[in-house]
């Protein structure tokens, strides 16, 4: 199990450790990271700007003058992964004050070393160049710590022996002298310039008078030319007006011709429209009705053909089905007869006898069928023994009749022999 840790854009989250003794580290800036309990470590390092005020007191310059210099530096931890790793190695677990102290000492050391190579005038008069030199020299060292110098400026430069004050006094005197000389030269130049301006003013006035006279003469000439041009313009206007009137009349005639052509075109289109309307209202409906009747007749014809084809197909299918049924029944009857024939052939005379005995009831039924429609039979005979004799005669003639029809001698069947001779 573990936790999800988050940091803002002004902090970096460092997750170290892991399973199997892993030494892998992950850096997250302004985001989140997952950390396992017990086996990973979570630490944070600030990315905010840190303001430092390095101060070097009584540092001797290249001329041996002891001066004190104070500055202001803005630094921060860089977010590049590799450089952030350097910063974490150097400062992780330290407070902001401890980080500031380390960087401040580094900057003050470089500031001291640079002060020893410059003169007081170079430091005092060109502070920007001096600050740039400090940044360039100190940047590689603090960069190896993962720190970036955003800005470095010189705040104040002073000394305890009034060297800078004396330098300022001599400079002030020189400036005052140059100012007096400048005032005198300015007054002289002003007088010369004033005379030159007066001369230029007279020249300009003469030129202006000359130009004014020339302008008047040119104005009179322009008026004369204008009057002449005006007369010519009036004549040209009248001539152009006549030409325009003629053009307008020609254009009116052309317009009338175009209108007449359009009127003819409209009449022709009206004739075509009337013709199309007659075609659409009279001819087309008649053609449509004729086509409709033709299509209906064709549809009825196709319907009759399809109906006849369907009926023929139906009859054909019924015939094929009946033929198949008859063929199956015939095959079944043939198979039955074949089996009977085989049975009769196998059992010989006994089979024939059984067949005859099986058929006798059916023969008797057919023979006695007319009698079945007789409601009453009356035998007229004065002798009762005669009736019995007739019955015995019929029974005696029955085996002979069967033998004649089937070839089977019923008298040879043991059962019938017993019926004939009960005493036996």
TrEMBL record:
It is found in: Membrane; Endosome. Residues 212-270 form a coiled coil. SUPFAM superfamilies: Band 7/SPFH domain. GO terms for biological process: protein localization to plasma membrane; regulation of myoblast differentiation. Transmembrane segments: none annotated. Keywords: Coiled coil, Endosome, Membrane. This is Flotillin. It comes from Danionella cerebrum.
